[in-house]
């Protein structure tokens, strides 16, 4: 029976970053994953020489210099800058909302003209809501009654109807008038010509793809795929403070378990099931070197059923390299209702799920020798950089 300091359940960014830190501290690690590959949701599949983001487009971005230098020390990152485009009934608009968008929408050429147009539309919306629903005025201020009203008060009718309304309805599967106002807190508008989606100081994609980052972080660790933690027998001996874990393909002892699978599943769903939102992808190869000229195109009207089309090569190929690769791979993204057996992607931030997750977290705190980490293990949406930050602060 082999001994490890850590058994790490899940080879996503949390698990593999933990393994890297633990090994640097002289600890031994076994990383297992129930999937047939390592890397969790950042895993890429090679098709036509292109790294395809199998579980959804992943763009690394952060303001944290330490995190940026850390990931670049494992594999250098490229200069990819996320600048999505929106397609509304065949007409294209730059995102996020900036002077390019306002020129495309209204033909305005100065920040002053753009600002005046937005203010005019916001004022029109406010006037209309006050007239139609005087009860909505509290302490002299109109309170938006739903997401539609909130968006109209923030950016006015043209931007809302072209770029927000139908896209949001596709995402949520519900009408904007039936969605709560709090979903949209801010809708930043930029009065400069700047299509860079993120405000962070650093962004990019690992050169050679995310699998290189995963392989680099796992260098020296033992790994096992197709191994579901719950198909294993485990016992904990409080005296020696050792776990014994036995499965079809493993037979080990370990001092601690880092668990990055689903929080409710660990406890056998004893308090009930946590809900998730998910996305499905239809991926195909196109016989052209350049299908849409951009990595991300959002489809903001109801005419098309998908929300986005991702053209994967643009994450890593620039300039002449795009044409040196004769084919391309695109994925349509669909928002779908989560059902058993689907990939659990986004935790649901409502009262029932927040309360239930808090109860499970209390149980987790009492579990001896087990660290619950990551998106599934904490039932919390994390971007990649915060996951790494979290592991950097973990006690090894
Ligand atoms: P995961 O990557 O989910 O890894 C968990 C692993 O645990 C999985 O491999 C799973 O198979 C394994 N596992 C679960 N249960 C068991 C079990 N019982 N036994 C064995 N193994 C098990 N972040 C960004 O910064 N930028 C982006 O552009 C971005 N885009 C995203 C798009 C989508 C659609 C989603 C869902 C997330 C996106 N993220 C993005 C977030 C990013 O994916 C996460 O921050 C990151 O993957 C979290 O890593 P993790 O290790 O917590 O989880």
SS strand fraction: 15-25%
Parts with pLDDT < 50 across at least 5 consecutive residues? none
Annotated CATH architecture of the domain at 2-80 and 204-271 and 348-393: 3-Layer(aba) Sandwich
Q: Bound compounds, please?
A: flavin-adenine dinucleotide
Provide the residue-averaged pLDDT: 97
The count of DSSP E runs of length 2 or more, i.e. the number of strands, is 20
Number of helices: 12
Oligomer: single chain
Top-tier CATH class of the domain at 2-80 and 204-271 and 348-393: Alpha Beta
What's the main sheet like? 7 strands, mixed
Instruction: Tell me roughly what share of residues is in helical segments.
Output: 25-40%
Shape field: globular
CATH superfamily of the domain at 2-80 and 204-271 and 348-393: NAD(P)-binding Rossmann-like Domain
CATH topology label of the domain at 2-80 and 204-271 and 348-393: Rossmann fold
Our Rg estimate from Cα atoms comes to 24 Å
Structural class call reads alpha/beta
Termini distance?
Answer: 23 Å
Describe this structure in words.
- 32% of the residues lie in helices and 23% in strands.
- The strands form five sheets. Strands 1, 2, 11, 12, 13, 14 and 20 form a seven-stranded mixed sheet that branches. Strands 7-6-16-17-18-15-19 form a seven-stranded mixed sheet. It has a two-stranded antiparallel ribbon with strand order 3-4.
- The longest helix has 22 residues, at 111-132.
- The chain contains twelve helices and 20 strands.
- It has helices at 13-24, 65-74, 99-106, 111-132, 147-155, 157-172, 210-218, 263-266, 320-324, 351-365, 374-378, 384-393, and strands spanning 2-9, 29-32, 44-47, 50-53, 60-62, 85-88, 91-94, 137-138, 141-142, 202-204, 222-224, 233-237, 242-246, 251-259, 276-286, 296-299, 308-311, 328-336, 346-347, 370-372.
- The chain is globular, with a radius of gyration of 24 Å.
- Among the domains are: 2-80 and 204-271 and 348-393, 3-Layer(aba) Sandwich (Rossmann fold), CATH 3.40.50; 108-183, no CATH class.
- It is of the alpha/beta class and 396 residues long.
- Helix 5 packs antiparallel against helix 6 (157-172).
- Flavin-adenine dinucleotide (FAD) binds at residues 9-15, 32-35, 40-42, 56-60, 228-230, 260-261, 279, 345, 374-376, 382-385, 387.
């Amino acid at each position: 029976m082999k001994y490890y300091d850590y058994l790490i359940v899940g080879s996503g960014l949390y698990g593999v970053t933990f393994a890297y830190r633990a090994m640097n501290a002289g600890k031994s690690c076994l990383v297992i994953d129930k999937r047939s590959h390592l890397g969790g949701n950042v895993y890429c599949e090679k098709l036509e020489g292109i790294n395809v983001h199998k579980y959804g487009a992943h763009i690394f971005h952060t303001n944290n210099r330490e995190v940026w230098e850390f990931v670049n020390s494992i594999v250098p990152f490229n200069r990819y800058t996320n600048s999505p485009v929106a397609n509304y009934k065949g007409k294209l608009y730059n995102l996020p909302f900036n002077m390019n968008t306002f020129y495309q929408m209204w033909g305005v050429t100065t920040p002053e003209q753009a600002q005046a147009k937005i203010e005019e539309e916001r004022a029109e919306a406010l006037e209309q809501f006050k007239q139609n629903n005087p009860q909505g005025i509290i302490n002299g201020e109109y309170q938006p009654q739903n997401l539609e009203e909130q968006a109209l008060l923030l950016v006015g009718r043209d931007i809302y109807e072209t770029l927000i309304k139908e896209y949001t309805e596709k995402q949520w599967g519900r009408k904007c008038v039936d969605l709560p106002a709090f979903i949209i807190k801010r809708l930043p508008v930029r009065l400069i010509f700047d299509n860079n989606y993120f405000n962070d100081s650093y962004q990019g994609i690992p050169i050679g793809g995310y699998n290189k980052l995963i392989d680099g972080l796992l260098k020296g660790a033992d790994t096992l795929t197709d191994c579901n933690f719950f198909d294993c027998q485990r016992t904990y001996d409080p005296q020696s403070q050792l776990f014994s874990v036995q499965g079809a393909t493993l037979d080990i002892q370990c001092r601690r378990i880092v668990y990055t699978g689903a929080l409710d599943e660990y406890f056998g769903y004893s308090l009930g099931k946590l809900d998730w939102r998910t996305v499905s992808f239809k991926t195909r190869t196109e016989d052209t070197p350049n299908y849409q000229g951009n990595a991300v195109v959002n489809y903001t009207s109801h005419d098309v059923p998908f929300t986005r089309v991702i053209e994967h090569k643009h994450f890593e190929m620039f300039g002449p390299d795009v044409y040196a690769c004769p084919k391309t791979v695109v994925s349509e993204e669909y928002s779908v209702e989560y059902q058993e057996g689907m990939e659990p992607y986004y935790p649901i931030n409502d009262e029932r799920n927040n309360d239930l997750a808090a109860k499970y977290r209390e149980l987790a705190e009492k579990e001896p020798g087990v660290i619950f980490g990551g998106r599934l293990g904490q039932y919390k949406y994390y971007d990649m950089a915060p996951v790494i930050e979290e592991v950097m602060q973990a006690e090894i």
